[in-house]
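Section 4.2 – Deliverable D4.2 (structural model, holo form)

The reporting period included a commitment to supply a predicted holo structure for the target in complex with adenosine-5'-diphosphate. Inputs used:
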Amino acid sequence: MQQTKVLKFGGSSLADAAQFRKVAAIIRAEPERRYVVASAPGKRFPEDIKVTDMLYDCFDLAARKENIDEAFAKIEARYNGIVTDLGLDMDLTPEFRKIRMAIEHHAGKDYVASRGEYLNSLILARYLGFAFIDAEAGIFFNDDGTFDDKHTYKALSALLAEADYAVVPGFYGSMPNGTIKTFSRGGSDVTGAIVARAADAVLYENWTDVSGMLMADPRLVEHPRVIEEITYRELRELAYMGATVMHEEAIFPVREACIPINIRNTNAPEDPGTMIVPNSETAPATVITGVAGRKGFSSITIEKDRMNTEVGFGRKVLSVLEDFGVSFEHIPTGIDTMSVVVATASIAGCKEALIGRIFRDANADSVTIDDNMALIAIVGRGMVSNKGTAGRVFTAIADQDINIRMIDQGSGENNIIVGVNERDYDAALQAIYREFVRED
Ligand code: ADP
Ligand code: ASP
Ligand code: MG
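Output (structure tokens):
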């Protein structure tokens, strides 16, 4: 049987007709490129607005009972522009009418957002002459909003088997009651992985606007090196910590089936990009594979004399967090102190109550919360066999006169996390990159 490759194209890859042409050329270059997952039109230039954001805007206007005419007309214009420039004989008026009515009648937010990928996929399917398979009929969630893998793979595999070549819209699926639900932002990457798994693909190609996973965010480091090969585990750590080129959930469906991912650049299809593999045999070119980070963390510091000898102290603190529905990122501890690092957004509105409860339940001497922390993850499978990596990280940061607020090393020894003040974030990340990537 012919092998199958699944391709996902991001928003900037499908932002206008010129991009659609590049995408079609890429797909047509190999007959194995059979199933295509499409995002909504993204930015054509830096100040442009993604269609997904325009749809959220329409939803908000309707929720405030304001007129959506102007906002919706702009969305129609984006799609009509693509259809006309591609010379397609396609009239989206009935689709627009339906969506518009739904927004005015207060359809769910996820339904509204999902129409971005729905419409773009209709156009792409027509342009390529491929079948259109609606994600609504093939991707399912459970009542609690988690992904329903069994139902999905059964239904989606059957739908794919009926079409040799097809386009599937990214980002959304159906709830058990039939309403539309989306993944979190950037979720078309997840759809692509699910389709790759359902199609039993040999490769999942993720086409975007950079030539692969870069060793650092290109918005912070000038021309960072491309990572040639990275393991699922390393990718997940970097993606989770902010290397947003790939959604952090996207590796799960393909990892189970050992399907490699190839991140590629729609604007430079000749570049080999990054291969994401289950296990890497090749030693990385540098000790670290990559560095990524995020702002917006808080550290809750609890002090209590002789805390280390008190059995169950940690549990008391963590069960308070559990009661408040807060998940934690890291728990660095001292002899008489324990810090719990959490996302600031997750404790907004309940800080005082949280402090009071920890104080009481854990019988603490003091409880304080400090905001404005950024976390930086230094990730690399090469770190295990290289002594002194942590020392190099700390020295690089200290040389910039930056204070380290937290240190955590993953037990697998393939990541080091440091916490710094948000204002020092850019400089710290740049210093770490420079330390490990010296220009030859
Ligand atoms: P798409 O719309 O194709 O899904 P995204 O905007 O979601 O694309 O992801 C690609 C962007 O991710 C790049 O343009 C880049 O600005 C950003 N990015 C952040 N960190 C990294 C990194 N380590 N490697 C590559 N890109 C990164
Ligand atoms: N269009 C959606 C977003 O902007 C999903 C995606 O692009 O992956 O988040
Ligand atoms: Mg993306």
